Amino acid sequence: MSDASPNRIPVAVIGGGQAGLSISHYLREAGIAHLVFEKKTAMHVWREQRWDTFCLVTPNWQCDLPGHPYDGPDPDGFMKRDEIVAYLDRFRAKVDAPLREGVSVLRVGRRADGAFDVATSDGDYVADQVVVASGGYTVPIIPRMAERLPAHVRQLHSEQYRNPQALPDGAVLVVGSGQSGAQIAEDLHLAGRKVHLAVGGAPRCARFYRGKDVVTWLAEMNYYEMSVDQHPLREGVRDNTNHYVTGRDGGRDIDLRKFALEGMQLYGLLDGLDGGSVTFRPTLTAALDEADRVYNGINAAIDRHIAEAGIAAPPASVYTPVWQPAAEPTALDLDAAGVTAIIWCIGFRPDFAWLDVPAFNGAGHPKHRRGVAAETGVYFLGLPWLHSWGSGRFSGVSRDARYLADRIVERLKAPEEVRSDGIRQFVAAG
User: Fold this and answer.
1) Taking Cα atoms as reference points, which of 40, 84, 91 lies closest to residue 65?
2) Going along 176-225, which residue ranges are E strands?
3) Which InterPro entries match (predicted)?
4) What is the spatial distance between Cα 144 and Cα 207, in angstroms, rounded to a whole number?
5) Which of 123, 181, 251, 397 is the most buried (most CB within 10 A)?
6) Contact 111, 345 (CB under 8 A)
């Protein structure tokens, strides 16, 4: 294909979620021609992969997409699924991105001239630069042991769960206690279903503390401005599990100990499967204690902020466990317990198999600095902790997108230089 091909574009954006549309906004603002490729429909995840009672776990005021801050009547509330979809539909209309929906990107590879071949289900393109905005939550994780479960036990991933009524009658085993697992377990529990929950290592935090939403306190403390380079864990923070809490019914804590008092059965980490019996590691007590330690630690940090700033606030408090496991349950006979469904809430993994360029580290993770890949002309956007806590959320993706758009513009305007190996690259003037 020659450079004169009508399929030559300055920038190809892969992914039509909020990240892809955010950078499209800034590229269009800068007058940079581009295409956004989306294998399904723009922001389909919010429509198709969220349960009926799903809501944000951060206040609405944190929704701040490019040119589209939260525009509803309840900034301190938590939008429900349909409200989120409507908010994003309005954002999409404002951006009016050059979208190619229903088009899968099959391969992106480097050309001899330094540009990229972009092979899609709708033909081939050549792009000078590529933005990978397909996200970090692409492929549902389901353990191989799931293949050995009895056929009469229905299995689904958290992205497939909709409501308790859609499941067969009987008890439900929820595996994983991150944000999705804890909220789905609560949804089933409130509906009167018997829930067995395999508790992982996810931390938790308070919803409200000393008169404010904890997110508001953390924003005042500039936590959300902290970059990954400033975080004590550095890049290790990208592997952290999100704290479980909920915005349901105006927002509240999720306390698994309280659920246990009310009849939910808690276990440690899922360990294996022996016939119709599921086994667990004896990690429940440690997991609950660690989640509470983080909970109290966040509140203690808020206490210090209040004291140092001289802020008038309600008195401090420390969470005291309302329940302790009498023993560590290590097995569950599915049939004897009447378990008819298992919901896997153990997360997702990204899928970059189509990106055939050396832009990854030894562990297979994108190698980048603030989204600018080590491979010239490649950028990542929308990943958790790409730059800060908000990078994979509505609160920080706009800043990341603007930063990358500026880098793209700089490269397009820079003089061209040929490396000794003959591969073309653009370098900044001076």
Assistant:
1) 91
2) 195-198, 208-209, 212-213
3) Auxin_biosynth/cation_transpt (IPR050982), CHP04046_FMN-dependent (IPR024000), FAD/NAD-bd_sf (IPR036188)
4) 35
5) 397
6) no
Distance from the Cα of residue 78 to its chain's centroid: 17
- Which residues 6+ apart lie within 8 Å of 375 measured at CB? 110, 357, 358, 359
Please write the tens of the pLDDT for every residue from 117-164: 999 999 999 999 999 999 877 889 999 999 999 999 999 999 999 999
Q: Which two tokens stand for residue 222?
A: 């500039």
Q: Strand, coil or helix: what is 175? A: strand
3-state secondary structure of 200: coil
Tokens at 32, concatenated: 């940079």
Instruction: Tell me which residue of 59, 57, 81 sits closest to 70, measured CA to CA.
Output: 59
Check if the beta carbon of residue 13 is closer than 8 Å to that of residue 131. Answer: yes
As a three-state string, the secondary structure of 112-145 is CCCCEEEEECCEEEEEEEEEECCCCCCEECCCHH
Does residue 318 surpass a pLDDT of 80?
yes
At residue 238 the predicted structure's pLDDT band, cuts being 50, 70 and 90, is low
313 pLDDT higher than 50: yes
Residue 408 corresponds to which tokens in the numbers above? 């793209």
Task: Give me the residues paired with residue 109 across strands.
Answer: 117, 356
List, in order of start, the domains of the chain with CATH numbers. Answer: 8-138+350-426 (3.50.50.60), 142-344 (3.50.50.60)
